[in-house]
Amino acid sequence: MEMIWLLIPPAILAMTLTCLLPGRYVRSQPTDANSAQVVVSFGQLAQVVDITVDQNGAPTEGVIQRWSNENAEKSYRAQPFGGHLSAFKTFGGYRLPTRVEGGNQFGTPDYFPFFKAEVSSIQFPESGAP
Q1: 128: enclosing H helix or E strand
Q2: CA 35, CA 49: separation in Å to the nearest integer?
Q3: Distances from the Cα of 84 to the Cαs of 8, 42, 43, 94, in angstroms?
């Protein structure tokens, strides 16, 4: 069995629901019955996140605009980056996705999911652990 530790970059972290709860730096607006546009901002910086949820409120997709040259022209520009979350299971009282897929050009014919993960277990640090 292989154990993988993931350091989550800010763009991916923005796709987790807890950081998208309303607050000082977060505002959201529904776009339809199953999706919302969330803006996370701090000072002059802002990141828009489009979130889609299922009938139970679980997130199923997340999309941001990412500055990248991962396109046919190899030209730097803002383009969709996102992915799918599925197969939710409960770990330590938290309901979390156990299948995650993400990549560049999300929602377009050029979508390339370069990150795919299936989670089989999750362990939380003991209280007071570093």
Answers
A1: none
A2: 10
A3: 16, 26, 30, 18
Long-range (24+ apart) CB contacts under 8 A made by 71-80 are 71/104, 71/105, 71/110, 72/110, 79/104, 79/105, 80/104, 80/105, 80/106, 80/107, 80/108
| pLDDT value of position 41 | 87
**pLDDT number for residue 129:** 60
The DSSP 8-state label assigned to residue 93 in this structure reads T
Positions in the chain whose pLDDT score sits under 50 = 1-15
Distance linking the first and last C-alpha atoms of the chain: 24
**pLDDT at res. 96:** 87
| pLDDT given for residue 125 in this prediction | 79
What DSSP string runs through 9-69?
Answer: PHHHHTTSGGGGSSBTTEEEEEEETTEEEEEEEETTEEEEEEEEE-TTS-EEEEEEEEEE-
